[in-house]
C-type cytochrome (Aromatoleum toluolicum), 104 residues
Amino acid sequence: MKFLSRIASSVLAAAVLVPGTSLAANVIAGQRIYSQHCIGCHGPGGHSALPNAPHFSRGERLMQPDMMLLATIKAGKMTMPSFNGILRDQEILDVIAYLRTLQR
Ligand code: HEC
């Protein structure tokens, strides 16, 4: 058991340390995607640039599971376009991980 948990933790460490592995969400990649696809409306650092877009800097709308946010971002909502076919699920999960770092 001890041996197994040691293997498990080194696999986990590898996922965090090796760039490009997709086991864990990648906040750095998420930041890049955010500045390409989201910043125009949600603003730098999540300080919203539109009156009706949530402020991620205040944690707005982020009190929901990643899978629900993923579904909303893929579908689009009101004036937010659908990102289905534009971003892969893993990329959207990376952005969500980044959004969760913005609350101040
Ligand atoms: C054209 C402007 C625009 C762009 C681009 C945009 N959004 Fe939005 N987003 C909005 C608006 C407006 C809302 C609020 C929709 C509503 O009225 O509920 C929103 C809502 C959200 C929400 C909250 C969903 C909920 O449950 O209410 C999340 C999360 C989100 N956006 C993430 C993103 C991410 C990630 C990107 C980039 C991949 C992005 N948005 C790009 C305008 C935009």
